[in-house]
Each structure stands twice: as C-alpha cells, then as structure tokens.
Input
Amino acid sequence: MADKWWKKSVIYQIYPKSFQDTNGDGIGDLRGIINRLDYLEELGIDAIWLSPVYRSPQEDNGYDISDYQDIEPMFGSMEDMEALIAAAAEHHIKIIMDLVLNHTSDEHRWFQEAKKSKDNPYHDYYVWADGEEGVLPNDMKAAFGGSAWEWVPELGQYYFHQFAIKQPDLNWNNEKVRREIYDMILWWMEKGVGGFRLDVIDQIAKEPEQKITANGPRLHEFIRELSRETFQKGDLVTVGEAWGADIARAKQYSNPDGSEFSMVFQFEHICLDQQPGREKWDLEPLPFVKLKQVLSRWQTGLHGCGWNSLFWNNHDLPRIVSRWGNDGEYRVQSAKMLATVLHGMQGTPYIYQGEELGMTNIKYAIGDYRDIETLNCYHDRLAAGFSEAEVMRSIYAKSRDNARTPMQWNDGSEAGFTTGQPWIAVNPNYKEINAAAEREDPDSVFSYYKKLIGLRKTLPVIACGTYELLLEDDAHFFAYCRKTDTQELYVICNFFGDTVTLDIGAVVPAGSGLLLCNYPEIADEALFRPYEARMYLY
Ligand code: TEU
Ligand code: CA
Output
C-alpha cells in the first residue's frame, strides 16, 4: 500500500509571518525558513506546508491573494522562494504551497477589473447579485461576521464573500476562471513544489441564490477537472481543507485512484468542544468518549479506500496542549500523550510550528490581538450582549492568535524570532519553552516528536496496519491496536491528569515489548500516571 511517498511522510506547517524574521522588521520571512531547515531536518519531517506567501494586502494574513504569481515583499522575493525550494530539497524536504482558490483579495487585478463595469471581461470572474442599496439579496453571513454581500455603488450590484469583505468569492462556474487557475498551478509545479494544500476547497462550488456554500452541486466535477488538468501531471501530495466533509465525501476526495486529492482535512473531532449547531466561541467541555468514537470511525472508515490526514493543530486552531491537555504542571507529559494518540494512527500527520515544543495558548489584552476573526468576534459579541468576561473566555480558548504567536527559538530577546518588534507579541513563557533548550534535552517534547516521526518510517504497522479501538467506553484511556500480518502495535494513553490503574495483561498480549513511554521509567506496569502514554509492540 505504501506506494505513494506521502503515505509514510510527516508534514510540518509553517505560518511564515510568525516563524523566523531575518531583517528585523518583526515579520517572519522566506530567508528565515531557509535558516531553519537544519532544525526541520533534525526533527525528521518530509515536507513543509507553507501558509500563503503570495502578494497580498494581508487582511487575513495572506489568505487574501492579490497576485498568485508573485511573492509578498514582506516575505521576500521570487528568488528567495526559488532558493527555499532548492535549499529544502537539499534537506530532503518538499515545499507544499497553500492554494486559496475560493476567493482572491479585492486588490487582485481580476477584481479591480471586474468592478469597473458589468460588461468588463473579468466581471463574471466573481459572484454578483443585482439589487438595491440597503436591501440585501439574502441573509447569508460571512465567516468573519456580517453579511456575505457587499454593495458596489458604481455597479448597482452586490458581490458575494464567504470570508472578509476584502475576500470576494471567485465564480468557479466560469470556465475562464478555472483555466486561469490551472495555468497558475502548472506554473508553480514547474518551479518544483511538492504539493498543494487547498484552502476551503469544499466551498468553491457555491450557489448563493440557493444559499449553498459547502458541497455545492458541481463540487466534485470541478475538483476532478482541477486534479486532471494539474496535479495528475506530477507526483504531488494534495490536501483539501473540507470543513463539510463526512466519511463518504472523504472517500471520494481521497480516492486511491488519484482522481481528486491525496487526502482532506476534516474537522469532526476538532468541533467537539463547541455547542452543537452554534459557533466555535460557544464553549463546551470535550466529550471524551465521543472523541474516541469519531477518530476511530475515520480510521476504520478510510482504511484501504481513502486516506486520513492527522492533526490537532493548525494556524486557525488553539494549541492542543492548552486545549485538551494541561499547559501547567503536566505540559510536557500531556503534549507527548496527545502526540502519541495521533502519531500511532494511520494517515499523514501534520505538525503545526511550535507544537513539537509543546507551545501553549496566549492570553493577550484585546489590543494585542491581530486576527480579523478574533477582533470581529469581540465587537460582534459585545454588541450582541455578551459580557466582556465571557467574550474574553471564548477568545482565550479559541482565538486563532493562540497559534500565531512567534515561534520560540531560544530564551533571548523576543524568543530569537526577531531583533526588532514582532508583529504580534511573543508568549512570555519562551524562557522555559524554546527550541534551543528542547533540542539539547532527550526528555523534551521535541525529542519525543523526533522518536514518533522515526517510528512511522521504520514500523510498517504504523503506516499500513488495521485499526481497532480498545476500552471503547472507558472514561480515562484512549487505547487502540494496529495490526499487520506480522506486527501488532498497542497504543495506550491516560488522557487525563489523575492516576489510574489498568489490567495491562488483558489489553496487551504477553510477550509484547515496550516501544515508547512519555515517562522515563515504569515502576508498576498497572499504574498509569497523569497523561501517561505507552506504545507496546508485539
Ligand atoms: O479557513 C477556513 C475556515 O472556514 C475558517 O474560517 C475557519 O472556520 C476559522 O478559521 C476557524 O476559526 C481557511 C484558512 O485556514 C483561514 O486561515 C482563512 O482565514 C480562511 O480559510 C479564508 O481563506
Ligand atoms: Ca522579516
């Protein structure tokens, strides 16, 4: 089965703005990534998913692209980008570009033309509705708050935007739009990129008159055409972001025949700690048994007929150690435990920058937040009558800026991220949590991630084995078994902070060997300390 290179790979996500600054302007840049390739090679990752570095006014930190074939000057130049691809290859690392194809920036040339007149050749590149000022075409909302419709007085029309006002949606029903996109992708493929991550790809086939955004009627027709015209001409890894994916759809997206993508990001597990049907800000404790069921259903559901991506974190999500672990006393143990749960599964794991250090959430004063979604939430929720304390509780728990604090490289000024003033404040815990210290320490979170990545490469059972959930209804343990004809892997994790006992002999066959544990030694096999995680091999 492990025919495709990405089936044994581990991918590392870089949010360039917060990774490493080299020129003192407080903003991470491409040269900064080049300087840190040694670190990434040491960690053992195979590819970097680079959040967008294209020309962009940065309304949404690069997810608003004004030129797909140019690099945003704050990140560097096209020469720097080419140098990064080449230098990464020397470190055996591929570069995966982030493709934002659902929308552009309103500063993109296409949109500038499109809004000049209804008969401009670019007008139909976007999604419009006739109407009257002040009378919205319908009640659809944008993801970052407010209406999804924005009035253009010169045209007497509204344009449709699923995200910020400065992110007008592209019209995929227009064949010319699709052709432009394919040509652009082929151009990047010629530059030697190793793959693509496709932003909100399940929302491209929207039909606003019918209030359809995700999973539109022509979605898979568009994706198959996109894949055939571009990705299938190379040996790429492709991952679609699909908040609306269920297992049936994911099978189609990641069909082993290669007709769509390699895999998708699905978010069923990630949405479990919010009130059903409400917003992510409406907090709810994690239903642990449900989490096990959901992840296990995806494991068995895609085995042999699709492919999973495995992740706890990305640039939109809070830090997992703060979210479902313990970022105080048991930070190291719980970060390792969460990693063990994920890295024993089948699929392609994604590590978000700083996750391998056990970096934590942040609590800023509201003036220090930078994220448009967070700032809009703050204003909208206060206006809707929530108390300031309630709003801040949601923001502390879920703000996207939790993930966007600068990478903590060392205990020097600004955590070694910049010699200047960082665009977003450094987490003050960088004195204790930083890469320099963790690289030296064999018991660090970093060293543990290195081991987990190494195991995926050496043990076929991790890449290929079947999956079975154990201790299904247990309220403490996340335990499962992976099997091939010749190997059995048992992953047993105490997901919480109390000490619990387990009749280990009833779960793991006699004669199994301990492969990995997040505590230095085990005095009593039956006793699982707070967040204790073990892997046994039989
Ligand atoms: O995110 C998709 C998306 O739906 C987000 O609005 C998501 O729901 C939210 O961030 C969760 O809090 C992608 C990108 O990952 C995100 O960074 C962009 O802002 C968004 O698309 C628009 O391009
Ligand atoms: Ca810089």
User: Anything to note?
Assistant: The two ends are 21 Å apart (CA to CA). DSSP finds 15 helices and 20 strands in the chain. Residues 21-23, 25, 27, 29 surround calcium ion (ligand 2) (CB under 6 Å).
